[in-house]
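[step 3/7] fold_predict: job queued, chain A
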Amino acid sequence: MSTYTAQDYKKGQPRWCPGCGDHFFLASLHKAMAEIGVAPHNVAVISGIGCSSRLPYYMNTYAMQTIHGRAAAIATGCKVSNPALSVWQISGDGDGLAIGGNHFIHAIRRNVDLNMILLNNRIYGLTKGQYSPTSPRGFVSKSSPYGTVEDPFRPAELCFGARGRFFARAVATDAAGTVEILKAAAAHKGASVCEILQNCVIFNNGTHDAVATKEGRAKHAIYLQHGQPMVFGENRELGLMQEGFGLKVVRLGENGVTERDLLVHDAHCQDSTLHLKLALMEGPDFPVALGVIRDVEAPTYDAAVNEQIMEIKEKNPCHCFNDLLYTNDIWEVK
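[step 4/7] structure written:
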């Protein structure tokens, strides 16, 4: 079996602003692909339009930048026509959830075996700073000078609403965390959605400041691991428990609370109720959930389509065009 390094997947010189989260994510993707071990010629990276969608130019794999919002549609066709390919879809929050929102939810609903990366900086960067579908209510931008009067999409909510079976989240500046969820996404058979929290240094600097640094994540995030109790905090002194139909943060040692009293993460639970509650947590009252939040097996669209084609071929008496010609009356002209 061949082994690969991150260098085997690199191509070109990235042209993003210095400090852009895309640089961090690209480095993690190269490293993850080397650890996954799929040969570059068996990988396809497909994007839409936007700053993040330039990423295919920097991949030494099959790669294609398509049109605005259509990455999921092209990626679906690519995977169904060639199931052996490892297909990665790269979209920003605008490209993926605004003009591409319809394709996003239906690729998830169909459970196409795609690795769908959503790079979320809560802004339109390429078109110079308009608010996006994930910008918070009241956000001031070039297209909302007095603040938006809309509530944002929450990617996890869309994913689970479309019957998503895999959802994970990482921070672009956290290389180790990003690599781990990318590897988990590649191992999952079906539509996997990885939300990457990243910064736009020009038009929305600091949007994820609370978890951008290692120290910030220690204070404001929780790394979920399947089968492990939900512990977090700088000294692992906090945890999550169920309270009624919701969650509550507790301090270990207070009121006799121990790790045994905490919720244990079950990423494979068919019921997505708790997964959604975890994915929607936000500060200051709750930590931001990072890691693999949901990972559930289900039949995939591309496999089902190809199985159906093979089944019909076996039953059909016509195996070539000549067979088709002889299915009806034939006249010989002399």
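[step 5/7] annotate
The chain is about 30% helix and 20% strand.
The chain has a mean pLDDT of 96.
exit 0
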